[in-house]
């Protein structure tokens, strides 16, 4: 009967945007209380209104109620709703409506006692545990664990035995029992708030522990406090009603909701109607509190899932059919050649990917046996481009245009079913964090042999032999032992080798590698890169390599596509791009990369690129790099096309590319010079500029000017 | 692992001990001395004092506690002040009732809850919203209200099930099952809703893990990703949720026993609290704690066993 308020399931899922948008966009784990969320959901609005009406009606009850709670109308015993008694009468002819509303204030008020004790105590304990260090935390956690494993109902009843039916006191003790669950919910958050940098700063400044808790930790917990209060309020009401139902409510003639339901249950055979009004009012009140709590907390959301729900798959099949119908039949492309044309990827705002664009008009080709590098900072759409090659975009993100031609098929218009035939067998994936890419619940051997049996149609024994062979091929010496381990038992470098073996298990012709070395130690990085180089040579497969590291590009890639803010800004052969970069962004990346500079011409200061990649929703229609470009001028405030750069078959997206090539300018190690900022601001307002200068761009540069 | 189990066992023992102290103190705070309770109104002061003397009521508190604890450890909780029967014998006959009730309700909640939660997470869309709405209603309606409606619809109107009463398993397995059906269903409504929510959230979290993408990249069929890999990953929090739910349902049996007139522990608590029968209250509190703590311990060990990281260490 006493629910432990355990970490609410509703709080455990990540916010929607997290998987889709760059890290900079992610909201902090701890949210401030926001009233607007309360009114965003119709259910919680209704809840607030109902609670307000109930409280108001109950407090003013003596003024408007048609009957006193004890008035007995012997002419209408156990009546249904009538003009005289809107909600009927009970077995003594007392008016139900009057009794419900007269007892509402008491019920709600005493439930608030539980809330205040539970939340107050739970929060205080959590802040104390977070502030006072591990020893104190261990003690408090042990005590709350004990409290949570108690049969709360039995204890509350024993307390009633000792103190009688003193409802406020009992509700307070109930609050103490519930505070253990509350503490559990709060502890993680309180600890993360306590470890914030500004809290360290405050400590250095000599702010007292109490001051820090009150000033920095408590406000961060506000939203959780409100959410949990609403949920505990509901629990308190239910328990109070339950106690009254079994006879431990207010003294007899006084009405209480639980007692009224008890009375109704005695007459359920001859007057079933009696069950309805009190039950409905109680349920509505509990629902209201829950609705408010749920609206303020984050509901678990399916959109960050790596496996779309059945509903999402149906939607996608429809969208794909539309693309397939609209696009021309793919022309006969050469075997094992990947040709991506004008690929666009967007966030679904309307179920068809027409929300924010994450990738726009990206084109590149990969010849058999060659390696293409997709280069750029985080948030430039490289990973989204790579994942779209396998049809593995996260839920809520989809291809909105263009084609992905592979062996004469357009993968962008393939159904999930069709893609199942392509994934693993023709196109395989290696991801960034090998530890997270392997299933922690199954052994390496199980994962590898299951894939081999599925993709190659082998029997159990044959697959096991193949798994051993594959592990040896990726440079694992004691393959037999590794097969028996779980992913958490092996090192990151070893796990990446296993992940590569897994990717190779279906003998793919194209490998998509999403930053395969970023999460590894430097020495291990080199080993994995040389393993990949060897594999390309041995198997003749092609690779699309996503990376931000130009050293990796120089090491491995034949072709490079530099991406910035969802677009390809420069594209061509690796040697010509590294030796002779034409786009300012490529120049900047090279200047900022210690590995890409040869020792001889290593500059004294490493250049930086000021600012950050803008968020996808802020991408301007002009040159997207303009806000950070050292060479930006008024000529840049127009949409810039991708044009031949003049070196080989290279392409570049910059109006000043030729000019820069002639002048031989370098990206210098300073911030953006002020005159360029002025230039930009002028460009935004000049009549010659584009009719509508992007407001965000203007504001940013002006801010920079002030700084 | 052995260390872990030892630690947990010690914790469990400590929990029971704390509750024993608590129960002892609470009972001593009850109004009325044992003599007064036992002899009822109208008994002479001398008679009351005589009974109190015999029961050791005038001994120092600490001595009383250890006498009681010593007997309790051997399974003797004294005799009831009301009817003079052995508390232990009474509780022993009641425990199976509550145990079948709580176990049945937990089992039904788990089966229903996991089914609904997985369906909501996997199907999404309309199915998700409908299940979410039903679960929201189910946790908002008090169990006793739902129980009365069940009695009215299933027992009174269609007389499929007996409305009240309990038939021991030894008497007739079939009637035993029928007599448990309504109370178990009543308790399981809220329990299933809770577990469904927990399952949905855990499944969604599992599907957000990056290894799901690896599985898709190696052409793992969808059913296998969902029901082998994701469910396996989600099983840890789900089992933890079921453990929590058992504690609640064990407590909830107080209501179900009252509603369906079942002679279980819940009824014993209620009666002994109403009549200030000190030995019975103490006994039932301790027994209830032992059961809940023991079941929790088993489920917690099961959770640890499900996690390869902990199993290996
Ligand atoms: S178009 Fe202008 S702003 Fe854009 S990269 Fe070229 S020079 Fe820089």
From TrEMBL, chain A:
Residues 697-707 have a biased composition (Basic and acidic residues). It comes from the Bacteria. This is Dipeptide/oligopeptide/nickel ABC transporter ATP-binding protein. Residues 687-707 are annotated as: Disordered. The keyword Ion transport does not apply. Keywords: ATP-binding, Cell membrane, Membrane, Nucleotide-binding, Transmembrane, Transmembrane helix, Transport. It is found in: Cell membrane; Membrane. PROSITE patterns: ABC_TM1, ABC_TRANSPORTER_1, ABC_TRANSPORTER_2. The keyword Transport applies. Belongs to the ABC transporter superfamily. Residues 104-293 form the ABC transmembrane type-1 domain. The lineage of its organism: Bacteria, Bacillati, Actinomycetota, Actinomycetes, Micrococcales. PANTHER family: DIPEPTIDE TRANSPORT ATP-BINDING PROTEIN DPPD (PTHR43297:SF2), OLIGOPEPTIDE TRANSPORT ATP-BINDING PROTEIN APPD (PTHR43297). Its main location: membrane. SUPFAM superfamilies: MetI-like (SSF161098), P-loop containing nucleoside triphosphate hydrolases (SSF52540). The chain crosses the membrane at residues 38-65, 100-131, 225-248. InterPro entries: AAA+_ATPase (IPR003593), ABC_Ni/Peptide_Import (IPR050388), ABC_transporter-like_ATP-bd (IPR003439), ABC_transporter-like_CS (IPR017871), MetI-like (IPR000515), MetI-like_sf (IPR035906), Oligopep_ABC_C (IPR013563), P-loop_NTPase (IPR027417). Residues 687-696 have a biased composition (Low complexity). GO terms for molecular function: ATP binding. It is a multi-pass membrane protein; Peripheral membrane protein. SMART domains: AAA. Pfam families: ABC_tran, BPD_transp_1, oligo_HPY. Residues 338-590 form the ABC transporter domain.
Automatic annotation (TrEMBL), chain B:
It is found in: Cell membrane. PROSITE patterns: ABC_TM1. Coiled coil: none annotated. The keyword Amino-acid biosynthesis does not apply. Residues 95-303 form the ABC transmembrane type-1 domain. It is a multi-pass membrane protein. Keywords: Cell membrane, Membrane, Transmembrane, Transmembrane helix, Transport. InterPro entries: BPD_transp_1_N, MetI-like, MetI-like_sf. The chain crosses the membrane at residues 101-122, 134-156, 176-196, 233-256, 281-302. Belongs to the binding-protein-dependent transport system permease family. PANTHER family: DIPEPTIDE TRANSPORT SYSTEM PERMEASE PROTEIN DPPB-RELATED. This is Peptide ABC transporter.
